[in-house]
Specification:
The protein contains 13 helices and 4 strands. With about 325 residues, the chain is mainly α. It has 2 domains: about 55 residues, no CATH class; about 220 residues, Orthogonal Bundle (MetI-like fold). The longest helix has about 35 residues. The N and C termini lie close together (about 10 Å). About 35% of the residues are buried.
């Protein structure tokens, strides 16, 4: 297990380095001068040269990339034109439009995505696994077909349509909930919970369909195996056979998919945050794209990629724990 873990960690570090190189090339070395974008159209030649020097764009390309990588681990200082700003490690750049380090902007938005992801993941796993098991225990029956149909219908619904329907139903027609406004959990746990209910359900209802089908297929496959018939012949109760043996076969696939979905959602749920007005990474990405704030876009892209890579590594580890056969590969 230790060797398996070391291989996965080394692979993760290699992929992160490649990702950083690709992101840097895409956003800083493609056509279009980042200094012009940061300075604005009204900059004269002297101001443009000052901004280019402050951003380090007057250095050789290899030196720029090395400084970019080095700043992630040790931080760096930026000349803002009116003084010097220090960007602490992990430094992902400096937004000259917001006059703030990118890391600071990300840390302000990331708690929103963590809150959104944790609540939604608990809901979609509970709904998906629960209803998948519910459908699998009566295969080809009415409840199996009805449950599968509802899961497929919800999974096929675009999230912005489902979000709009939830807002209309609970905030306009029935007036059971206020329009969502993000409140930090440290400020008021009750309002934090109340304002995230609709975003949680919007994501969970769309995502649960996939977990329903995975759980149903895994349980049905397991129940058809010879060892299940042997357990029944030995007098094991149906509940023990299903919960301790049949469900366990479906868990590795479900855990792998969940880890990747959680990693992707932590990187920013653009549609959900836009529909519910949540100040998370998705909204920050949209605002930065509108303002052509390249350092912030670069930082969000790197953070999202890092979270997805970590999620994939966690998925591999979970699969290895749940299925020991994977460890020998």
């Amino acid at each position: 297990m230790t060797a398996f873990l070391l291989r996965r960690l080394l692979s993760m570090l290699a992929v992160l380095l490649i990702l950083a190189a690709v992101v840097y090339v895409l956003f800083y070395l493609t056509p279009g001068d980042p200094a012009v974008l940061a300075c604005g159209k009204r900059c004269d030649a002297a101001e443009l040269a000052q901004v280019r020097q402050a951003m380090g764009l007057n250095q050789p390309i290899y030196q720029q990339f090395w400084t970019f990588i080095e700043s992630i681990f040790v931080g760096r200082s930026y000349n803002t034109g009116i003084g010097t700003a220090w960007c602490s490690a992990p430094c992902l750049g400096f937004s000259f439009q917001s006059d703030e380090p990118v890391t600071q902007l990300l840390t302000q938005s990331l708690p929103v995505d963590v809150s959104l992801t944790v609540g939604a993941a608990i809901l979609w796993l509970g709904l998906g696994i629960g209803f998948g098991l519910f459908a699998a225990l009566r295969p080809d029956g009415l409840r199996d077909k009805a449950t599968t149909f509802v899961g497929l219908a919800l999974g096929s619904t675009p999230i912005f349509i489902l979000a709009l329907l939830l807002l209309l139903a609970f905030c306009v027609w029935w007036q059971l909930l206020p329009f969502p406004t993000y409140v930090p959990i440290t400020q008021n746990p009750g309002q934090w919970f109340e304002n995230l209910l609709l975003p949680w359900f919007a994501i969970a209802l769309v995502s649960a369909g996939g977990y329903l089908r995975l759980t149903r297929a895994g349980v049905l496959e397991s129940l058809s195996q010879d060892y299940i018939r042997t357990l029944r012949a030995y007098g094991y109760t149906e509940r023990r056979v299903v919960l301790r043996h049949a469900v366990r076969v479906a868990l590795p696939t479900v855990a792998t998919m969940a880890a990747m979905d959680i990693g992707g959602l932590l990187g920013g749920a653009v549609f959900t945050e836009s529909m519910f007005g949540l100040p998370g990474l998705g909204k920050l990405m949209v605002d930065s794209a509108n303002n052509v704030d390249l350092p912030v876009i670069t930082g969000i892209t790197l953070l999202a990629g890092f979270l997805i890579i970590v999620a994939n590594t966690v998925a591999d580890l979970l699969y290895a724990v749940l299925d020991p056969r994977v460890r020998i590969r």
